[in-house]
Amino acid sequence: MSVVRIDASNLHYTPLNQQIRKAICEGATEIVIDNVLGQRFIGDGLRGNDVKITINGVPGGDLAMFMSGPTIIVHGNADHAPGNTMNQGKVIIHGSAGDATAHSMRGGRIYVRDNIGYRGGIHMKQYMEKRPILVVGGSARAFLGEYMAGGLLIVLGLKGQIPVAERGIGSGIHGGEIFVRGAVEDKYLGVGAKQLPATAEQMAVIQPIIEDFARTFGIDAEPLVSAQYSRIAASSARPFASKYTPE
Fold first, then answer.
1. Does the CA dihedral 210-216-222-223 come out positive or negative?
2. How far apart (Å, rounded) are the C-alpha atoms in residues 73 and 42?
3. pTM of the full predicted structure?
4. CB 178 within 8 A of CB 233
5. How distant, in Å, are the alpha carbons of 99, 216, 233 from that of 181?
6. Distance between alpha carbon 147 and the CA centroid of its chain, in Å?
7. Mean pLDDT per 10-residue run, the chain (247 residues)?
8. CA-to-CA distance for 207 and 152, rounded, in angstroms?
9. Are the C-beta atoms of 51 and 29 separated by less than 8 Å?
10. What is the number of other CB atoms lying within 10 angstroms of the CB of residue 219?
């Protein structure tokens, strides 16, 4: 089927999403949405590994929420919580994303070329081989990886940016791992988080992901994969155990 184009100018998010679903039900595997300006819930709950959606503009909150399979490419920034509770698929953002990016994400990948807001990766989780991945090219704000229960979060600090320089990194983390190019000051670590230099074995795992991110955005991967990284992970499976009254 040929490419389906949708003009989202002055279109409420409900009829916009109805048009997207209708196109997929009729066999469309590639959809281009032009003039997107804040419409929410685009791609929510969609299925189909062969579906590609290109968004030209700025999608609103909860992009790709509960999505299982499709690829969404955003040529612009994205509002809060892209990939919220996403199960599978890929979201590629050629710009920045708002707060709570990858909130409770359960699978798939999100690549953000530039920066994300507060609480990126909050409550990411994984089950066996189903492991969500968030890669941020620029920087992240406070409370990165808060309450992480699983998954992988990588912040690269491109263009000379400091990857993370705000408090609460990994606050309450009890699973998963955060890799930061370079290191962060210990004063920025949250409750229950510990930081150690990434080992060669750990770097071997994240290198293909960093290379894929670089290919996606046309970035030279060599200085990224050859850099030193810090790994931030849980110091305990119960980071707030001391806050509870003993039985």
1. negative
2. 12
3. 0.95
4. yes
5. 21, 19, 15
6. 15
7. 90 97 94 98 94 98 97 98 97 98 98 98 94 98 98 96 96 97 95 97 98 98 97 82 56
8. 12
9. yes
10. 17
- Residue 94 to residue 42: CA distance in whole angstroms: 16
SS3 letters across the chain: CCCEEEECCCCCHHHHHHHHHHHHHCCCCEEEEEEEECCCCCCCCCECCCCEEEEEEECCCCCCCCCEEEEEEEECCECCCCCCCCCEEEEEECCCECCCCCCCCCCCEEEECCCCCCCCCCCCCCECCECCEEEECCCECCCCCCCCEEEEEEECCCCCCCCECCCCECCCCCEEEEEEECCCCHHHECCCEEEEECCHHHHHHHHHHHHHHHHHHCCCCHHHHCCCEEEEEECCCCCCHHHCCCC
